[in-house]
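Running co-folding for zinc ion.
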Amino acid sequence: MNIRSITAPNPGPFTLDGTRTYLLGDSIILDPGPAIESHIDAILAEMPRVRSIFITHRHGDHAPAALPLKERSGAQIIAPPGVLDATDRIVSDGEVIEGLEVIATPGHTAEHVCYLTSAGDLFTGDTILGSGTTTIFPPDGNMRDYIASLRRLRAREPKRIWPAHGPTRDDALALIDEYIAHRLQREQQVIAAMAGGARTPADIRRVIYPDLDPRLERAAEIQITAHLEKLREEESSK
Ligand SMILES: [Zn+2]
């Protein structure tokens, strides 16, 4: 399958250089991106015969452009539940649609799915980024589900990762291993900080990230909260 991408003009701390909208073959768009007119024009110019618009999850930098694209092209919207009312086909785990297998990957958001081709090309949305880490913001985000989703993706032995943000990665398995190791290491740091007397997410954040950019403190504390919830969930399911 021929894979190209167009990066939306929405760079930022969470979107990196912007959302990558993928164009597959001559009829599939994956993660259409934000509803920015120049982005929609660029997609339609590249993909005049678009038939299907696949979406990984409902966030505003991934899904909204599906609506004007559908209006202007008549393409169908294919997405997990709860993404857009205008969705034509709700996906479920394990089904294959137009050569893309749906893999449920809750964690970044509850409804998040990834799409895998038979050639090992894995479209990861915000579950795995091309650089850095993704955000897990409870209650919609869930760290325990997230790590389980990474392991599910690992088990499928993908060859390449095409993330919604950041560069394509040919070292798919190594990247997934790194992602899992990073979260488990962070969890150990949280446990160690608590053993040292830290109680609140802010206390723990000061131990783990002593020199953090103040603009990122809140996000770090939410990630720590996600780890604390995972530990609590595991404790109560023992
Ligand atoms: Zn997202």
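Result summary
The CA atoms of residues 57 and 112 lie 5 Å apart.
The pocket of zinc ion is lined by residues 57, 59, 108, 126 (CB under 6 Å).
Job closed.
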